[in-house]
Amino acid sequence: RAVTLQPNFLEAQGNLGSALEQLGRHAEALDCYRHALQLNPGIPELRYNVGNVLQTLGRHEEAEQSYREAVRLRPAYVEAHDHLGVVAAKQDRHDEAIAHYRRALAIRPDHAASHYNLAMSLKHLDRLDEAVASYRRTLVINPRDTDAHVNLGVALVEQQKIDEAIACYREALRLKPDDADAYNNLGVALVEQQKIDEAIAC
Asked: Which of the 8 DSSP states describes residue 130?
């Protein structure tokens, strides 16, 4: 209603954009954020929000530009650095993605998402020792991250550390009993150990 009564009300445009984004109405959210940016182009959060919507819509190059603008306006914007890495990774530019994640972590060393995303790109490049270390750092910060447990297990399997991988999958299932990826990977690891009956139970 605030937007209807006063279309140029900056805060209302931003809030409406957030609400529409949460409802999955991404094109409308994008319009609201861009209207708000016309009123004040110097707000880094709005640039970041535009980037998130564009990324959701698969428009990665445009999203990247929005995140770059957010970082230009606020050089220590950790989430924007992290998302620059995400859009680079989605375009298979993993070396560049790694550089962005490391910039984010230089600013905030305990940013769990950047550790996890860094691990994913390192794993993609077959830099397994570094990937495992980054997954472990993620779990020190956020021990309930089931995706990190599962993907750490996957990396450990590639290192032939099957017992450690199984422990990761079991921990993921303890935290999230309906995690299909954890069940599937646990079954594969048990087959590797010739524990067929246990694998079938998965």
From this structure: H
